[in-house]
């Protein structure tokens, strides 16, 4: 391993404490000057390193570079993150990952971009993806489970992402059926799963799970500001995108492994924010009104209509009814 990589690992292992230049030189088996050069090179890559005379160096907590090394070091999952690709800019990480998957990329391959020029949301919408702010990641999975469980993948990803965000910022995260995460009444994350059917038809060849989290503080502008926020703005805590990515991968693997037993559903139901409220639901050009009763075992939304009949919503979108004063 080269000096720069080893230095980064030593700084990470120090957990935010300072390490002196001479101690680092000893650990790395190089001169203090070589340590200094490696520090400069890391800074060139975008890492923020605090250096204080008589104390040494430490990785700054608000270092905001997307780093494969840090993600690998923090990632506790066995297979997700087996291959990590970080891009400066791409139209959409989902599109890129789908292409990789169609060409044989392995289960667990992750594509992350600093910026997406045409980030995709559900229902043909755009997902705003400004640079340096969000975690825009797509995970390729080659599921071994029967296709009947495929509709649960997005809800699994929602629970995994909610838990990861909560663990890092210590604040509650809600899920709005089916794929949006909310903090303080505003959206912080959206999920878009795209799948390709296998030849045998009872299995997926692959699925790409696209997760977009607004992480660092950001002004979304007049139009979006009332509906969208970031984890940092909602929690007041500085969040590392690398740590968040590693945690999402770990929780995602855990819940995907338990998908047949639907082990994520209790957590999903507990966090779902439409449940118990009057809502409107849109399916194509049809809109219905009703009362959200909860989520069934296939993560569909159960809606009680005004005529007393139950409606099961499996696709489309649902929103809380606006209270008109
Ligand atoms: C939504 O809000 O409707 C879903 C948004 C999904 C956004 C993520 S960002 C990473 C991945 N790449 C995309 O183009 N979309 C997903």
Give the SSE map.
Blueprint: H1 3-13, H2 21-28, H3 32-44, E1 49-52, E2 56-59, H4 68-74, E3 83-90, H5 93-102, E4 109-116, E5 134-141, H6 153-169, E6 174-176, E7 180-183, E8 186-197, E9 204-214, H7 221-225, H8 231-235, H9 241-257, H10 265-271, E10 278-283, E11 286-295, E12 301-305, E13 310-313, E14 317-320
Parallel strand pairs: 3-4
Antiparallel strand pairs: 1-2, 4-5, 5-9, 6-7, 7-8, 8-9, 10-11, 10-14, 11-12, 12-13
Bound molecules: biotin.
Model description:
- By secondary structure, the chain is α+β, with helices and mostly antiparallel strands.
- It is 31% helix and 28% strand.
- It has helices at 3-13, 21-28, 32-44, 68-74, 93-102, 153-169, 221-225, 231-235, 241-257, 265-271; strands spanning 49-52, 56-59, 83-90, 109-116, 134-141, 174-176, 180-183, 186-197, 204-214, 278-283, 286-295, 301-305, 310-313, 317-320.
- Helix 1 crosses helix 3 (32-44), helix 2 (21-28) packs across helix 3 (32-44) and helix 6 crosses helix 9 (241-257).
- The termini are far apart.
- The mean pLDDT is 94.
- Biotin is lined by residues 92-94, 116, 119-122, 125, 127, 136-138, 179, 190-192, 210-212.
- Biotin (BTN) is lined by residues 92-94, 116, 119-122, 125, 127, 136-138, 179, 190-192, 210-212.
Summarize the structure.
By secondary structure, this protein is α+β, with helices and mostly antiparallel strands. It has helices at 3-13, 21-28, 32-44, 68-74, 93-102, 153-169, 221-225, 231-235, 241-257, 265-271, and strands spanning 49-52, 56-59, 83-90, 109-116, 134-141, 174-176, 180-183, 186-197, 204-214, 278-283, 286-295, 301-305, 310-313, 317-320. Helix 1 packs across helix 3, helix 2 (21-28) packs across helix 3 (32-44) and helix 6 crosses helix 9 (241-257).
């Amino acid at each position: 391993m080269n000096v720069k990589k080893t230095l980064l690992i030593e700084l990470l292992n120090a957990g935010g404490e300072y390490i002196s230049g001479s101690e680092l030189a000893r650990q790395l088996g190089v001169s203090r000057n070589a340590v200094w050069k490696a520090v400069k090179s890391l800074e060139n890559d975008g890492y923020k390193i605090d250096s204080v005379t008589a104390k040494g160096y430490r990785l700054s907590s608000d270092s905001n570079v997307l780093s494969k090394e840090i993600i690998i070091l923090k990632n506790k999952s066995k297979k997700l993150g087996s291959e990590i690709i970080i891009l400066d800019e791409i139209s959409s990480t989902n599109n890129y990952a789908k292409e990789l998957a169609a060409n044989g990329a392995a289960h667990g391959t992750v594509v992350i971009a600093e910026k997406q020029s045409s980030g995709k949301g559900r229902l043909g919408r755009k997902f705003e993806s400004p640079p340096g702010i969000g975690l825009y990641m797509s995970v390729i999975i080659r599921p071994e489970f029967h296709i009947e469980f495929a509709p649960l993948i997005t809800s699994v990803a929602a629970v995994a992402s909610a838990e990861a965000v909560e663990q890092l910022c210590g604040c509650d995260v809600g899920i709005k059926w089916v794929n949006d995460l909310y903090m303080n009444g505003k959206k912080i994350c959206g999920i878009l799963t795209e799948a390709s059917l296998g030849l045998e038809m009872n299995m997926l060849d692959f699925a790409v799970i696209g997760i977009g989290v607004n992480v660092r503080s950001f002004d979304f502008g007049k139009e979006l500001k009332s509906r969208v926020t970031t984890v940092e703005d909602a929690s007041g805590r500085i969040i590392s995108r690398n740590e968040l990515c590693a945690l999402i991968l770990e929780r995602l693997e855990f819940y995907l492994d338990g998908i047949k037993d639907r082990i994520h559903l209790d957590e999903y139901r507990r966090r779902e924010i439409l449940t118990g409220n009057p809502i409107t639901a849109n399916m194509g050009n049809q809109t219905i009104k009703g009362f959200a009763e909860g989520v069934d075992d296939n993560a569909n939304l159960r809606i009680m209509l005004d005529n007393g009949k139950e409606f099961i919503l499996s696709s489309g979108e649902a929103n809380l009814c606006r209270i008109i004063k």
